[in-house]
Amino acid sequence: MTILFIEADEPLLMFSSVEMAEQYLEAVDVRSGVYKRAFGQAGELFSIEAESEIVVIRATEQPADPDGLCELLRRSLHGVGEAFLPDADLPTLVAAVEARWTKRQRFATAISRWGCIVAVFMLVGLGVFI
């Protein structure tokens, strides 16, 4: 499975696979140039194209750009206030971004579960008063 890092307005999107990225990204945004670059975890370059309303991501034949990926990951970690060593190598930066992404996903899942539970109690509470 290829982890995919996509430079965007956020400035970084991370996907656990090319397929997940293709499902998440919108063709209109691809055509508008929202997604600037896409990298594999070793700096491999990927193209992002819109074919009608379908997003297609493919590995390119261009040489890998690990320095470009390092710069993107550093900027992303800095943007969210995450501490990292300025001279950290690519595997260290990838691991730091993965850890942050995993933590964020767990937090979002926990919020979703609690949000559903709160919503059910609110509906039950409203039913009592009506």
Describe this structure in words.
- The protein contains four helices and five strands, in the order ββααβββαα.
- With 130 residues, it is an alpha+beta fold.
- The chain has one domain.
- Strands 2-1-3-4-5 form a five-stranded antiparallel beta sheet, with helices on both faces.
- It is globular and about 40 Å long.
- Mean pLDDT is 83; it is low at 106-112.
- The chain crosses the membrane at residues 110-129.
- Keywords: Membrane, Transmembrane, Transmembrane helix.
Instruction: Please report the distance between the alpha carbons of the first and last residues.
Output: 52 Å
What is the topology, as strand order, of the major beta sheet? 2-1-3-4-5
Largest sheet geometry: 5 strands, antiparallel
Number of helices: 4
* Residues in β-strands, percent: 15-25%
Count all strands and give the number.
5
H and E string: EEHHEEEHH
Percent helix range? 40-55%
Mean pLDDT: 83
Count structural domains.
1
The rough form would be described as globular
Give the topology.
Layout: E1 4-7, E2 12-15, H1 18-24, H2 27-32, E3 37-40, E4 45-51, E5 54-59, H3 66-79, H4 90-129
Antiparallel strand pairs: 1-2, 1-3, 3-4, 4-5
